[in-house]
Write a structure and sequence with these properties.
CATH class: Mainly Beta
Distance between the termini: 16 Å
Number of strands: 11
Number of helices: 1
Low-confidence stretches: 1-9
Number of domains: 1
Strand order of the largest sheet: 1-4-5-7-8-9-10-11
Largest sheet: 8 strands, antiparallel, barrel
CATH superfamily: Lipid/polyisoprenoid-binding, YceI-like
Length: 187
């Protein structure tokens, strides 16, 4: 998507692959209403297809293996994989497919698309920023992006919770999503 990588005068289709070893899909959610628990998904894959070097034509397609969830606590990760939350046996993948990209500033975009979790699809807008592009030591063109969004987990069927006797709940409804993505241009 980076205009620094491909001139807007170039014609044709450019396909960028997400480099899974240099990309992360992270999340943060309130716990007991007093702390924030963070985690990530270790298995992320996808493509960004750009026409004629124009970032606003980007078609973003991302798939995440939900079982790759990692919060640093094995017991919590198992609970998140269970039917109480992601139900990875029935719904092993989380997907995002863009429906539009709007430039809102220099290397700043709003990427709108359909996020699917547990077979529930809802529109989401990612606030994305280009971090630049380079040619790596092996001759490949790479570009970096960071993107954030906030969703309500209940909108996607992630409704398990437990009330606290002092008021509040164990798990907050709002989830902050942060994506750090490194793209590699296909030859």
């Amino acid at each position: 998507m980076s205009t620094a990588t491909r001139s807007t005068t170039e014609r044709g289709t450019n396909v960028w692959q997400i480099d899974p070893t240099h990309s992360q899909a992270e999340f943060a959610v309130r716990h007991l209403m007093i702390a924030t628990v963070k985690g990530r998904f270790r298995d992320i894959a996808g493509t960004v297809v750009v026409e004629d070097g124009d970032p606003t034509t980007a078609q973003v397609d991302v798939t995440i293996d939900v079982a790759s969830i990692d919060t640093g606590v094995g017991q919590r990760d198992q609970h998140l994989r269970s039917a109480d939350f992601f139900d990875t046996d029935r719904f092993p993948k989380l997907t995002f497919r863009s429906t539009g990209v709007e430039r809102v500033g220099e290397d700043h975009y709003e990427v709108t698309g359909d996020l699917t979790i547990r077979d529930v699809t809802r529109p989401v807008t990612l606030d994305a920023h280009g971090l630049g592009s380079v040619r790596d030591p092996w001759g490949k063109e790479r570009a970096g992006y960071t993107a954030t969004a906030r969703i309500n987990r209940k909108d996607f069927g992630l409704s398990w919770n437990q009330a606290l006797e002092t008021g509040g709940v164990v798990v907050g409804d709002e989830v902050k999503i942060t994506l750090e993505v490194e793209l590699v241009l296909d030859d």
